[in-house]
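Weekly puzzle thread! Below is a chain. First person to post its structure in token form gets bragging rights.
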Amino acid sequence: MRSTDAPILIPDYPEYAPHERSEESLRQAERALARAARPPEPGREREWVAEVTPALETAQRAIRLHREVMEGPSGLYEELQHEAQWLVPRLERLLGRLGRIEAETGALRRMLAGASDESAHGTAAIRADAQRMLGLLRALARREGDLLFDRFNEPSAGD
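Winning reply:
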């Protein structure tokens, strides 16, 4: 394992505000999916599977944590419902996408666990799916940033 492939841990420190934990968990999910998208070294497919399986589990947990914080008390969803209702439909679409990415990550993890072909060809589909999900997660993070920008920079029609 290279030094950049250190185990991914989701911080659970009380001093972290929920939003900071949520942002950090999203970054960790991106790193885990990026790990799964990298090809194994030739002849080391079994080791790749052993490294990628926990990375995908971490990605799924991190995505779930991010979604739970956004939907939870004092989360972005609650904030927008009270202070920027015109943005709630956009947030609901983002949460739906996040839920689909979480489910797909779990399905990919199960596919990897049940894979009998650990050859380079067998890992290619898993890597391609991880790369696609990484792109979706990064696009979602940008859309969340856009949503927050609009929250503070676009006046509501009702104000």
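Puzzle host: Confirmed. Bonus trivia for everyone else. The domain at 14-153 is CATH 1.20.120 (Four Helix Bundle (Hemerythrin (Met), subunit A)).
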